[in-house]
């Protein structure tokens, strides 16, 4: 793979040398103003005046800042000159005239070099300062030259056959591969699609935590399709100079169109694509907004029949992206690249282990089992650490013990991020998630349980249960809301039943359950006690955060009503809690079975999950 970069600019070096020379010259001149001239004796102004009045002065050259004069007695010596610094004296010409002094203003300075320097130095200083800032921003990859700072700094990777990255180099993200195969087809044979009048998609957003292989995947798409790959990071667009980012986007797309079909990869899209509303009052960033607008314009800009340029962008925070970016015709396709499950981790380990010499006893499956929550980059790192350890100890092959130590090292680094679980925590998470799933599967309001996972995601979620609505829903009835609350409490209830104690893991569930119950009472009028009244003020347009960050204020209510609301909310949540406990107690065996199974496989989904959950039974009290 070769990276095309310009060599660093020579003009910049020359510029800084010139700057130094002129700087020293000025300093010198400031301290020794007369070094380059013959010294002229200076006298006080009062002495000069008295000499004038005594008729001793023959000639004077009267300047703004200096008067130079010659005494009558020295009139024949050209260099017998004295000088004085004038004060503001309007009578001076009269005095000189009255005393017969020959006087004139000094001849205009004919210092050619002085004048020239006066013209040249300020621009040089300006350019030097400019270059200083560009140099700081551009870093090593910057295209040199003062006037090219708006150039896109996209690196163009031209794949060479030997180092070509393909889908084989990426493992553990099979669904993503399937979805991106289509993009490869678009790039390879665009005619097939345009012939029937279909438009080729322009943008695909790769969403996933850091290190899961988003960049690698984008390169693999380029490699599979055999097209050039432009890559730039969102944060590189955001520059000191307003307008530079936008110009860069324009330049990038121009270059890309010349090389089409090709792929543009924008890493860290969130750096430019943050929702404009959320910037708002907190000091919106003009530069970012301009860059974003330019990106949107460029994406709208490829006309039908234009060469195929597909923009792949990566982010780990899709929720903060500006909705305008996600509109049809822009990044309307999203592909999830998540942390790999057990099977995925094994495949990734196999890819990297192939490149090192392993001893026979190495069991990659065991390593995969011990590394839940690790992203592809972490796994690649483990293999490399293990190889380094083996080499450090002068061994020829990498042993299982090296892997164990490597995992410990990496885990020590990761633990701070709080996503590597101990065995005990993993067990709790398993029961917790299965608790959600069983309750959810029995209560119709919860939606169909599609997947249970105990692979930690991000900082907060240690596991998750994915429920899919079976149809589009716009209205929910009271029963469904109660079911949802019970499902949310299913996790905590399972912990209560199995371990007899409660962990902090349910905090988010409780928050959501309580919010839902409160809304039932105060917004939807679903409480019999409080009646069909809205106790919450309706929202008045968007609040200033633009993201629902501020809750609606309550209407003024009496103390009694406030108490009644609290009691009612508590009643709803508690009833749901009891319901969840009843269900799980009835299905305790199933809870154990599924939890043990998920501890082995980490993810249960599809038919297997449906079959297991199909065995759950509803307690009679709830069946009604
Ligand atoms: P991201 O862009 O998602 O932050 P990268 O693509 O930069 O992650 O991944 C960093 C490195 O980790 C890759 O170069 C590759 O070596 C390794 N890697 C990450 N995910 C995978 C994967 N799914 N399969 C193989 N290697 C991976």
Output the structural class: alpha/beta
The tally of helices reads: 23
Query: Beta-sheet strand percentage?
Result: 5-15%
The count of strands amounts to 14
Count of structural domains: 5
CATH class of the largest domain: Mainly Alpha
Low-confidence runs: 1-8, 138-149, 279-283, 539-550
**Main sheet overview:** 7 strands, mixed
Tags for this model:
Signal recognition particle alu RNA binding heterodimer, srp9/1; 10% strand; four-stranded mixed β-sheet; single chain; 23 helices; 5 domains; seven-stranded mixed β-sheet; 624 residues; binds adenosine-5'-diphosphate; alpha/beta; Rossmann fold; 14 strands
Can you put this structure into words, describing what you see?
With 624 residues, the protein is of the alpha/beta class. It folds into five domains: 2-33 and 112-136; 45-104, Signal recognition particle alu RNA binding heterodimer, srp9/1; 155-336, Rossmann fold (3-Layer(aba) Sandwich), CATH 3.40.50.300; 342-412, Helicase, Ruva Protein, domain 3 (Orthogonal Bundle), CATH 1.10.8; 423-623, Peptidase M41 (Methane Monooxygenase Hydroxylase, Chain G, domain 1). Helices cover 49% and strands 10% of the residues. A seven-stranded mixed β-sheet has the order 1-6-8-9-10-7-11, sandwiched between helices. The protein starts with a strand and ends with a helix. Adenosine-5'-diphosphate (ADP) binds next to helix 7, helix 13 and helix 15. Adenosine-5'-diphosphate binds next to helix 7, helix 13 and helix 15.
Structure, briefly:
The chain is an alpha/beta fold and 624 residues long. The protein is built from 23 helices and 14 strands.
């Amino acid at each position: 793979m070769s990276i095309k970069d310009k060599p660093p600019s020579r003009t910049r070096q020359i510029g800084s040398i010139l700057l130094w020379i002129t700087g020293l010259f000025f300093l010198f001149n400031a301290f020794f103003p007369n070094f380059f001239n013959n010294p002229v004796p200076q006298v006080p102004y009062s002495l000069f005046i008295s000499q004038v009045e005594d008729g001793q002065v023959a000639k004077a050259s009267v300047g703004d800042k200096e008067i130079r004069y010659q005494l009558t007695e020295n009139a024949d010596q050209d260099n017998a000159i004295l000088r004085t610094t004038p004060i503001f004296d309007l009578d001076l010409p009269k005095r000189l005239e009255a005393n017969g002094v020959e006087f004139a203003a000094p001849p205009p300075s004919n210092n050619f070099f002085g004048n020239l320097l006066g013209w040249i130095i300020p621009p040089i200083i300006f350019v030097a300062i400019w270059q200083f800032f560009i140099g700081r921003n551009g870093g090593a990859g910057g295209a040199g030259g003062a006037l090219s700072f708006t150039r896109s700094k996209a690196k163009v990777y031209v794949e060479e056959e030997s180092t070509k990255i393909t889908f084989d180099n990426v493992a553990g993200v099979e669904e993503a591969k399937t979805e991106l195969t289509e993009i490869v087809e678009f790039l390879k044979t665009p005619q097939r699609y345009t012939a029937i009048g279909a438009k080729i998609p322009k943008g695909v957003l790769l969403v996933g935590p850091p290190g899961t292989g988003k960049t690698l995947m984008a390169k693999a798409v380029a490699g599979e399709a055999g097209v050039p790959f432009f890559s730039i990071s969102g944060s590189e667009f955001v520059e000191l100079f307003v307008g530079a980012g936008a110009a860069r986007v324009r330049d990038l797309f121009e270059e890309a169109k010349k090389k089409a079909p090709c792929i543009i990869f924008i890493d860290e899209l969130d750096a430019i694509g943050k929702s404009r509303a959320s910037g708002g009052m907190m000091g919106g960033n003009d530069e970012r907004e301009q860059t974003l607008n330019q990106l949107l314009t460029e994406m709208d800009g490829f006309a039908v029949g234009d060469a195929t340029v597909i923009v792949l962008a990566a982010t780990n925070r899709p929720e903060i992206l500006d909705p305008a970016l996600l509109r049809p015709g822009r990044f309307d396709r999203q592909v999830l690249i998540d942390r790999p499950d057990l099977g995925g981790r094994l495949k990734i380990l196999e890819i990297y282990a192939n490149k090192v010499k392993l001893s026979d006893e190495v069991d990659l499956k065991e390593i995969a089992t011990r590394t839940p929550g690790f992203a592809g980059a972490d796994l690649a790192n483990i293999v490399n650490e293990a190889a380094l350890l083996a080499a450090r100890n002068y061994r020829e092959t990498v042993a299982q013990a090296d892997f164990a130590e490597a995992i410990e090292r990496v885990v020590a680094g990761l633990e701070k991020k709080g996503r590597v679980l101990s065995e005990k925590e993993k067990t709790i998470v398993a029961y917790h998630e299965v608790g959600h799933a069983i309750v959810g599967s029995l209560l119709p309001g919860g939606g169909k349980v599609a997947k249970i996972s105990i692979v930690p995601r991000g900082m907060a979620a240690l596991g998750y249960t994915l429920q899919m609505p079976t149809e589009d829903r716009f209205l929910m009835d009271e029963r469904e809301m109660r079911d949802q609350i019970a499902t949310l409490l299913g996790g905590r209830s399972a912990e209560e039943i199995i371990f007899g104690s409660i962990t902090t893991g349910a905090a988010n569930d409780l928050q959501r359950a309580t919010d839902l119950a409160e809304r039932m009472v105060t917004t939807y009028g679903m409480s019999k006690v409080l009646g069909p009244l809205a106790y919450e003020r309706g929202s008045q347009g968007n609040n200033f955060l633009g993201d629902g960050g501020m809750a609606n204020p309550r209407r003024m209510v009496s103390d009694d009503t406030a108490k009644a609301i609290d009691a009612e909310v508590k009643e709803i949540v508690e009833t749901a809690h009891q319901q969840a406990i009843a269900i799980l107690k009835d299905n305790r065996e199933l809870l154990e079975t599924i939890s043990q199974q998920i501890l082995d496989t980490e993810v249960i989904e599809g038919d297997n999950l449906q079959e297991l959950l199909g065995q759950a039974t509803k307690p009679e009290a709830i069946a009604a």
